[in-house]
Amino acid sequence: MKGLELSRGYFEEFGLPMLEKEFPDILPFLAAGFVGSGSEHYGFDDEISKDHDFEPGFCIFLPNKNIISERQEFLLERAYAKLPKEYCGVKRQKLSPVGGNRHGVKRTADHFLSAVGKANGELSAEEWLHIPDYALAEAVNGEIYFDNYGEFSRIREKIRNMPEDILLKRIAGNILIMAQAGQYNFQRCLMHGEPEAAQLACNEFINSAVKTAFLLNGKYMPYYKWSFRALRELENGKELAERLSYLMSGSNFEKQTANKKSETIEVISSFFVSELQKKGITKAVCGDLEKHAYSVNDMIKDGSIRNLHILTAI
Predict the structure, then answer these.
(1) DSSP letter at 63?
(2) For residue 132, what are the CA distances in angstroms to 69, 82, 108, 115, 117?
(3) R_g (Cα) of the chain, nearest Å
(4) The pTM is what?
Protein backbone atom coordinates (compact mmCIF):
# COMPACT_ATOMS: atom_id res chain seq x y z
CA MET A 1 0.00 0.00 0.00
CA LYS A 2 1.30 3.45 -0.95
CA GLY A 3 1.57 6.22 1.60
CA LEU A 4 -1.07 8.30 -0.18
CA GLU A 5 -3.57 5.44 0.00
CA LEU A 6 -2.67 4.62 3.60
CA SER A 7 -3.07 8.24 4.67
CA ARG A 8 -6.41 8.76 2.96
CA GLY A 9 -7.87 5.58 4.40
CA TYR A 10 -6.68 6.47 7.90
CA PHE A 11 -8.07 9.99 7.57
CA GLU A 12 -11.48 8.87 6.28
CA GLU A 13 -11.86 6.13 8.89
CA PHE A 14 -10.52 7.95 11.93
CA GLY A 15 -9.44 11.51 11.22
CA LEU A 16 -12.56 13.01 9.66
CA PRO A 17 -14.99 11.41 12.16
CA MET A 18 -12.84 12.77 15.01
CA LEU A 19 -12.91 16.29 13.56
CA GLU A 20 -16.64 16.21 12.87
CA LYS A 21 -17.50 14.86 16.32
CA GLU A 22 -15.09 16.78 18.53
CA PHE A 23 -14.43 20.02 16.61
CA PRO A 24 -17.55 21.05 14.68
CA ASP A 25 -17.14 24.65 15.83
CA ILE A 26 -13.71 25.12 14.20
CA LEU A 27 -14.08 22.67 11.29
CA PRO A 28 -15.04 25.53 8.91
CA PHE A 29 -11.56 27.01 9.44
CA LEU A 30 -9.50 23.85 8.94
CA ALA A 31 -7.78 22.09 6.04
CA ALA A 32 -6.46 18.54 5.99
CA GLY A 33 -4.27 16.54 3.66
CA PHE A 34 -1.10 14.57 3.08
CA VAL A 35 1.65 16.84 1.77
CA GLY A 36 5.31 17.69 2.32
CA SER A 37 8.74 16.12 2.08
CA GLY A 38 9.25 12.42 1.38
CA SER A 39 8.60 10.07 -1.52
CA GLU A 40 5.23 9.02 -0.08
CA HIS A 41 3.81 12.47 -0.78
CA TYR A 42 4.53 12.02 -4.50
CA GLY A 43 3.34 8.44 -4.72
CA PHE A 44 6.92 7.28 -5.33
CA ASP A 45 7.34 5.20 -2.17
CA ASP A 46 7.99 1.45 -2.33
CA GLU A 47 9.00 -1.35 0.01
CA ILE A 48 12.43 0.18 0.54
CA SER A 49 10.86 3.52 1.47
CA LYS A 50 9.07 1.93 4.41
CA ASP A 51 12.24 1.74 6.48
CA HIS A 52 11.69 5.33 7.65
CA ASP A 53 8.94 7.96 7.99
CA PHE A 54 6.24 5.54 6.81
CA GLU A 55 3.10 5.55 8.92
CA PRO A 56 -0.64 6.16 8.85
CA GLY A 57 -1.00 9.89 9.35
CA PHE A 58 -2.11 13.19 7.87
CA CYS A 59 -1.86 16.93 8.46
CA ILE A 60 -4.44 19.28 9.94
CA PHE A 61 -3.77 22.87 8.89
CA LEU A 62 -4.85 25.86 10.97
CA PRO A 63 -5.41 29.30 9.40
CA ASN A 64 -2.80 32.03 9.60
CA LYS A 65 -5.15 34.51 11.22
CA ASN A 66 -5.82 34.48 14.94
CA ILE A 67 -9.09 32.57 14.57
CA ILE A 68 -8.38 29.43 16.57
CA SER A 69 -7.27 29.83 20.17
CA GLU A 70 -4.21 28.18 21.67
CA ARG A 71 -6.56 26.08 23.78
CA GLN A 72 -8.35 24.77 20.68
CA GLU A 73 -5.02 24.07 18.99
CA PHE A 74 -3.87 22.11 22.04
CA LEU A 75 -7.08 20.08 22.05
CA LEU A 76 -6.60 19.29 18.35
CA GLU A 77 -3.05 18.14 18.98
CA ARG A 78 -4.17 15.90 21.81
CA ALA A 79 -7.04 14.43 19.79
CA TYR A 80 -4.68 13.65 16.90
CA ALA A 81 -2.26 11.96 19.28
CA LYS A 82 -5.08 9.73 20.56
CA LEU A 83 -5.97 8.35 17.12
CA PRO A 84 -5.33 4.59 16.66
CA LYS A 85 -1.68 3.64 16.84
CA GLU A 86 -1.95 1.13 13.99
CA TYR A 87 -3.80 0.96 10.67
CA CYS A 88 -3.70 -1.75 7.98
CA GLY A 89 -0.85 -3.41 9.81
CA VAL A 90 1.29 -0.26 9.82
CA LYS A 91 2.16 1.33 13.16
CA ARG A 92 2.33 5.04 13.80
CA GLN A 93 5.69 6.37 14.84
CA LYS A 94 6.28 7.87 18.25
CA LEU A 95 5.10 11.45 17.95
CA SER A 96 5.74 14.59 19.89
CA PRO A 97 2.72 16.29 21.57
CA VAL A 98 2.29 18.48 18.50
CA GLY A 99 2.03 15.59 16.07
CA GLY A 100 5.59 15.24 14.81
CA ASN A 101 7.42 16.95 11.98
CA ARG A 102 5.60 15.54 8.93
CA HIS A 103 2.09 14.87 10.22
CA GLY A 104 -0.24 16.26 12.83
CA VAL A 105 -1.51 19.76 13.61
CA LYS A 106 0.31 22.56 11.80
CA ARG A 107 -0.13 26.20 10.93
CA THR A 108 -0.61 26.89 7.23
CA ALA A 109 1.90 29.72 7.61
CA ASP A 110 4.55 27.42 9.06
CA HIS A 111 4.09 24.87 6.28
CA PHE A 112 4.67 27.34 3.46
CA LEU A 113 7.38 29.22 5.33
CA SER A 114 9.29 25.95 5.60
CA ALA A 115 8.64 24.99 1.96
CA VAL A 116 9.32 28.25 0.08
CA GLY A 117 10.39 30.80 2.68
CA LYS A 118 7.16 32.82 2.60
CA ALA A 119 4.20 32.14 4.88
CA ASN A 120 1.69 33.61 2.43
CA GLY A 121 3.29 32.29 -0.76
CA GLU A 122 3.84 35.81 -2.08
CA LEU A 123 7.24 35.41 -3.70
CA SER A 124 9.14 38.34 -5.13
CA ALA A 125 10.66 38.13 -8.61
CA GLU A 126 14.09 37.57 -7.06
CA GLU A 127 12.74 34.75 -4.89
CA TRP A 128 10.99 33.13 -7.85
CA LEU A 129 14.24 33.25 -9.80
CA HIS A 130 16.32 31.51 -7.17
CA ILE A 131 14.13 29.07 -5.26
CA PRO A 132 15.00 25.46 -6.23
CA ASP A 133 12.62 23.42 -8.39
CA TYR A 134 12.38 20.67 -5.78
CA ALA A 135 11.26 23.15 -3.09
CA LEU A 136 8.44 24.37 -5.32
CA ALA A 137 7.49 20.78 -6.11
CA GLU A 138 7.35 19.94 -2.42
CA ALA A 139 5.09 22.94 -1.73
CA VAL A 140 2.39 21.67 -4.12
CA ASN A 141 2.67 17.87 -3.88
CA GLY A 142 0.47 15.31 -2.19
CA GLU A 143 -3.28 15.50 -1.71
CA ILE A 144 -5.62 17.88 0.10
CA TYR A 145 -8.66 16.11 1.55
CA PHE A 146 -10.62 19.24 2.32
CA ASP A 147 -10.00 22.95 2.76
CA ASN A 148 -13.05 24.54 4.29
CA TYR A 149 -11.41 27.90 4.95
CA GLY A 150 -9.68 27.99 1.55
CA GLU A 151 -6.49 29.65 2.73
CA PHE A 152 -4.22 26.65 2.22
CA SER A 153 -5.48 26.05 -1.32
CA ARG A 154 -5.14 29.74 -2.30
CA ILE A 155 -1.49 29.83 -1.25
CA ARG A 156 -0.85 26.47 -2.89
CA GLU A 157 -2.24 27.72 -6.20
CA LYS A 158 -0.08 30.85 -6.05
CA ILE A 159 2.99 28.65 -5.86
CA ARG A 160 1.73 26.18 -8.44
CA ASN A 161 1.29 28.97 -11.02
CA MET A 162 4.76 30.35 -11.68
CA PRO A 163 4.69 33.83 -13.27
CA GLU A 164 5.13 33.64 -17.05
CA ASP A 165 8.25 35.79 -17.15
CA ILE A 166 9.94 33.68 -14.46
CA LEU A 167 8.99 30.52 -16.32
CA LEU A 168 10.54 31.86 -19.53
CA LYS A 169 13.71 32.90 -17.70
CA ARG A 170 14.11 29.43 -16.23
CA ILE A 171 13.47 27.75 -19.57
CA ALA A 172 15.89 30.08 -21.37
CA GLY A 173 18.67 29.39 -18.88
CA ASN A 174 18.24 25.63 -18.99
CA ILE A 175 18.09 25.60 -22.79
CA LEU A 176 21.35 27.57 -22.91
CA ILE A 177 23.01 25.05 -20.57
CA MET A 178 21.81 22.26 -22.85
CA ALA A 179 23.35 24.05 -25.83
CA GLN A 180 26.68 24.72 -24.16
CA ALA A 181 27.05 21.34 -22.44
CA GLY A 182 25.45 19.03 -24.99
CA GLN A 183 25.68 20.55 -28.44
CA TYR A 184 29.09 22.15 -27.90
CA ASN A 185 31.19 20.93 -24.97
CA PHE A 186 30.46 17.20 -25.21
CA GLN A 187 32.19 16.89 -28.58
CA ARG A 188 34.86 19.44 -27.65
CA CYS A 189 35.85 17.41 -24.60
CA LEU A 190 36.08 14.27 -26.71
CA MET A 191 38.27 16.09 -29.23
CA HIS A 192 40.54 17.15 -26.39
CA GLY A 193 40.84 13.51 -25.34
CA GLU A 194 38.91 14.05 -22.08
CA PRO A 195 36.12 11.46 -21.99
CA GLU A 196 35.49 12.06 -18.28
CA ALA A 197 34.89 15.76 -18.90
CA ALA A 198 32.64 14.79 -21.81
CA GLN A 199 30.47 12.79 -19.41
CA LEU A 200 30.28 15.75 -17.03
CA ALA A 201 29.06 17.84 -19.96
CA CYS A 202 26.56 15.10 -20.74
CA ASN A 203 25.31 15.17 -17.17
CA GLU A 204 24.80 18.96 -17.31
CA PHE A 205 22.80 18.50 -20.50
CA ILE A 206 20.67 15.77 -18.89
CA ASN A 207 19.92 17.77 -15.74
CA SER A 208 18.82 20.84 -17.68
CA ALA A 209 16.80 18.74 -20.12
CA VAL A 210 14.84 17.14 -17.29
CA LYS A 211 14.16 20.52 -15.65
CA THR A 212 13.04 21.97 -18.97
CA ALA A 213 10.68 19.06 -19.61
CA PHE A 214 8.90 19.74 -16.33
CA LEU A 215 8.73 23.49 -16.93
CA LEU A 216 7.25 23.02 -20.39
CA ASN A 217 4.60 20.80 -18.80
CA GLY A 218 3.74 23.40 -16.18
CA LYS A 219 5.25 21.33 -13.36
CA TYR A 220 8.27 21.42 -11.07
CA MET A 221 11.00 18.80 -11.08
CA PRO A 222 11.05 16.99 -7.70
CA TYR A 223 14.18 16.10 -5.76
CA TYR A 224 16.73 14.55 -8.13
CA LYS A 225 16.37 10.98 -6.87
CA TRP A 226 12.73 10.99 -8.04
CA SER A 227 13.25 13.09 -11.17
CA PHE A 228 13.34 10.27 -13.73
CA ARG A 229 10.42 8.47 -12.19
CA ALA A 230 8.38 11.68 -12.36
CA LEU A 231 9.69 12.44 -15.86
CA ARG A 232 8.29 9.18 -17.22
CA GLU A 233 4.82 10.29 -16.12
CA LEU A 234 4.92 13.48 -18.21
CA GLU A 235 3.54 13.68 -21.74
CA ASN A 236 6.24 12.23 -24.04
CA GLY A 237 8.30 11.73 -20.89
CA LYS A 238 8.89 8.01 -21.21
CA GLU A 239 10.65 8.29 -24.58
CA LEU A 240 12.66 11.29 -23.41
CA ALA A 241 13.70 9.45 -20.26
CA GLU A 242 14.94 6.49 -22.31
CA ARG A 243 17.12 8.72 -24.47
CA LEU A 244 18.49 10.61 -21.49
CA SER A 245 19.19 7.32 -19.73
CA TYR A 246 21.26 6.22 -22.72
CA LEU A 247 23.45 9.30 -22.32
CA MET A 248 24.31 8.10 -18.81
CA SER A 249 25.44 4.68 -19.96
CA GLY A 250 28.33 3.43 -22.07
CA SER A 251 31.93 4.53 -22.17
CA ASN A 252 33.02 7.72 -23.87
CA PHE A 253 36.36 5.99 -24.43
CA GLU A 254 34.65 3.98 -27.19
CA LYS A 255 34.29 6.11 -30.31
CA GLN A 256 31.18 4.34 -31.58
CA THR A 257 29.37 4.85 -28.28
CA ALA A 258 30.48 8.47 -28.03
CA ASN A 259 29.23 9.16 -31.55
CA LYS A 260 25.90 7.55 -30.73
CA LYS A 261 25.61 9.77 -27.69
CA SER A 262 26.31 12.82 -29.80
CA GLU A 263 23.54 11.78 -32.19
CA THR A 264 21.18 11.24 -29.25
CA ILE A 265 21.93 14.71 -27.94
CA GLU A 266 20.86 16.15 -31.28
CA VAL A 267 17.67 14.08 -31.32
CA ILE A 268 16.80 15.35 -27.84
CA SER A 269 17.70 18.90 -28.82
CA SER A 270 15.39 18.68 -31.83
CA PHE A 271 12.60 17.47 -29.55
CA PHE A 272 12.95 20.53 -27.34
CA VAL A 273 13.13 22.90 -30.32
CA SER A 274 9.84 21.42 -31.50
CA GLU A 275 8.27 21.85 -28.05
CA LEU A 276 9.39 25.47 -27.80
CA GLN A 277 7.96 26.19 -31.23
CA LYS A 278 4.66 24.48 -30.40
CA LYS A 279 4.27 26.72 -27.38
CA GLY A 280 5.20 29.80 -29.42
CA ILE A 281 7.97 30.89 -27.07
CA THR A 282 10.77 30.99 -29.64
CA LYS A 283 11.13 32.69 -32.99
CA ALA A 284 14.36 30.96 -33.95
CA VAL A 285 14.08 28.54 -36.89
CA CYS A 286 17.26 26.49 -36.55
CA GLY A 287 18.51 23.51 -34.54
CA ASP A 288 20.95 25.57 -32.45
CA LEU A 289 19.61 25.54 -28.90
CA GLU A 290 21.67 28.61 -27.98
CA LYS A 291 19.73 30.74 -30.47
CA HIS A 292 16.47 29.38 -29.10
CA ALA A 293 17.55 30.16 -25.54
CA TYR A 294 18.06 33.84 -26.36
CA SER A 295 14.85 33.89 -28.37
CA VAL A 296 12.93 32.56 -25.34
CA ASN A 297 14.60 35.19 -23.17
CA ASP A 298 13.49 37.89 -25.62
CA MET A 299 9.87 36.84 -25.01
CA ILE A 300 10.04 38.05 -21.39
CA LYS A 301 7.81 41.12 -21.02
CA ASP A 302 9.31 42.61 -17.87
CA GLY A 303 12.47 44.39 -18.97
CA SER A 304 14.08 44.14 -15.54
CA ILE A 305 13.83 40.34 -15.69
CA ARG A 306 14.59 40.07 -19.41
CA ASN A 307 17.80 42.08 -19.01
CA LEU A 308 19.14 39.94 -16.17
CA HIS A 309 21.86 37.47 -17.16
CA ILE A 310 20.21 34.61 -18.99
CA LEU A 311 21.53 32.12 -16.42
CA THR A 312 20.16 34.07 -13.43
CA ALA A 313 17.52 31.45 -12.65
CA ILE A 314 19.89 28.47 -12.94
Answers:
(1) P
(2) 35, 37, 21, 10, 11
(3) 23
(4) 0.91
